[in-house]
Design brief:
globular; alpha/beta; nine-stranded mixed β-sheet; TIM Barrel
Length: 421
């Protein structure tokens, strides 16, 4: 029987085949305090809702399993918010529901995001017992003043302690998040944070440029003149410094903002691997879950504010946890918005996301997915961007150059439909 989703989303477009791997994301919107730069679907001071929220997420997962069958799940990512605020018993309930509804692979990558200020050795031991095998720590900076400006609730000392405790608990796949391009952040201060993070020997690093989001406390301070806006030229220097330091330390720059430790020696280990090689074969520590997003592959999201891309449709749930709980309790759909993704848009988004990767977009894999070559779909854009030195195109794979990585948004705009413009 061919499954369709016309009964839920008003579309008769076929769903992804049941045996096709589908990543799963679970959103935990609770925080002890909202960071000054955050505009995610998160709330502070509502931790008392966690038990009811987890029960609601389990019901949404159960309904998805009943509707779409036991889809094969190779990666699970529990993000937030601060998932490490969820008690072990509630996490166990959540994981049991996922394993009942889907076929979680034996070698599944199971990631949980955590704030270093919320972790203790017993909790970390519980996570390992539950099957969590990858930990992503929001460290952000090694400097107290920067952490305070960002509104983080932890110290650098707590981050160091969290890494040590995680290793003692048996975690051998740790990722650290850092933010650069902060107001008044000097290049030397950024280098100190990078070197401090490298001294902890994490398997993975995510380095994000600060984005000043409208309506956040940080945006308010900049608007009032109490903080200067970020310096884009200095942020570019920080990226180049990070590329040099991390390459020297043995990290594979596999995505614009992400590095994974690797023992392989590549001709150009900083970027651009041969088109017949996938990122996960260069390093076992690349984030397999996020590769799903960058390859524009199917995923299902559960919880308040969670998004899904599945069977030609994209949808997102309501973002307030109480509204989400109430909808689930009454049997109503938690979905707030749906969007049909026509084929040209899917092609364009596949290019935009795939170009973020060092592996780029393979012509062979593009042909296998869409039945058309990259040349046939976007020859003009490939030619223009190649001539400008922003894109490398050899007939086998399209990939960003070093300059293209710094001007990524200009590159990506060329692949919005109509593609060949």
């Amino acid at each position: 029987m061919q499954l369709t989703q016309h009964d839920r989303f008003g579309s008769a477009r076929p769903l992804v085949a049941p045996n096709h791997p589908t990543a799963v994301y679970v959103h935990v919107p609770f925080c002890r305090a909202r960071c000054a730069y955050c505009d995610f679907a998160t709330t502070a001071g509502l931790e008392h809702l966690i038990p009811a929220y987890v029960a609601a997420v389990c019901r949404e997962i159960e309904a998805a399993g009943a509707r779409w069958g036991r889809l094969r799940v190779p990666t699970l990512y529990i993000g937030g918010g601060t998932p490490s605020l969820v008690p072990p018993a509630d996490l166990e309930q959540l994981l049991d529901a996922l394993r009942a509804a889907f076929r979680l692979a034996d070698d599944a990558e199971v990631t949980l995001e955590a704030n270093p200020g919320t972790l203790a050795p017993p909790y970390l031991a519980h996570l390992r017992d539950l099957g969590v095998n990858r930990l992503s720590l929001g460290v952000q900076s090694a400097h107290a003043g920067e952490l305070q400006m960002l509104g983080r609730i932890h110290t650098w000392a707590q981050a160091v302690e969290a890494v040590s405790a995680a290793c003692a608990a048996g975690f051998d796949n740790l990722s650290l998040d850092l933010i650069y391009g902060l107001p008044r952040q000097a290049l030397q201060r950024w280098e100190e944070t990078l070197r401090a993070a490298l001294a902890l020997a994490p398997q993975h690093l995510s380095l994000y440029a600060l984005t000043v989001e409208t309506g956040t406390p940080l945006a308010g301070r900049i608007a009032r003149g109490t903080l200067p806006p970020p310096d884009d030229d200095l942020a570019a220097d920080m990226v180049e410094l990070a590329e040099a330091l991390l390459a020297e330390a043995g990290y594979f720059h596999y995505e614009i903002s992400n590095w994974a430790r690797s023992d392989q020696r590549l001709a150009d280990r900083g970027w651009q691997i041969p088109p017949d090689i996938l990122s996960e074969t260069v390093s076992p520590f690349v984030c397999r879950h996020n590769l799903v997003y960058w390859r524009n592959a199917p995923y299902l999201g559960f919880g308040a504010g969670a998004a899904s891309w599945f069977g030609g449709e994209r949808w997102v749930n309501v973002d307030h946890p109480q509204t989400y709980i109430d909808r689930i309790a009454t049997g109503a759909s938690p979905v707030a918005e749906t969007e049909h993704i026509p084929r040209p848009l899917e092609m364009g988004e596949t290019m935009m996301m795939g170009l973020r990767l060092a592996e780029g977009v393979s012509d062979a894999r593009f042909r296998a997915r869409f039945g058309a070559s990259l040349e046939a779909v976007c020859a003009k854009a490939l030619g223009q961007l190649s001539r400008r030195g922003l894109l490398s195109w050899d007939g086998r794979a399209a990939r960003l150059t070093a300059q293209g990585r710094l001007l990524g948004n200009q590159v990506f705009a060329h692949f919005l439909p109509p593609l060949d413009r």
